[in-house]
Amino acid sequence: MNFCECVANKLWKLYGEGKITWYGLEKASGCLHSTIMRIKDYSNKDITLETLSKICHGLGVTLIEFLDDDDFRKCFEEVKYR
To answer: What is the C-alpha separation between 45 and 22, in angstroms, rounded?
Structure first.
């Protein structure tokens, strides 16, 4: 799994838990609708640190809190061994 897929999976998880709506995330983060939709449908292949920072701000979490997840740990391990 690549980094962009991990971000999308994390957002889908939060959505499934009822912690976010896509529209609410757009408004709270200040990200464009098209950006959130591309992440949501896994078509975004290059999420910038600025975008991720905005998403974290919109979620009310730090970047470290957002990335503290087994999927991200696995993703970073894969990158480490390339």
So the answer is: 19
Both tokens assigned to 59: 């979620």
Q: Quick count: other Cβ atoms within 10 Å of Cβ 12? A: 14
Q: pLDDT for 51-79, tens place per residue? A: 999 999 999 999 999 999 999 999 888 76
Task: To the nearest 10°, report the CA torsion of 70, 34, 30, 59.
Answer: -20
What is the C-alpha separation between 27 and 74, in angstroms, rounded?
30
What CA–CA distance (Å, rounded) separates 38 from 47? 10
pTM (2 d.p.): 0.89
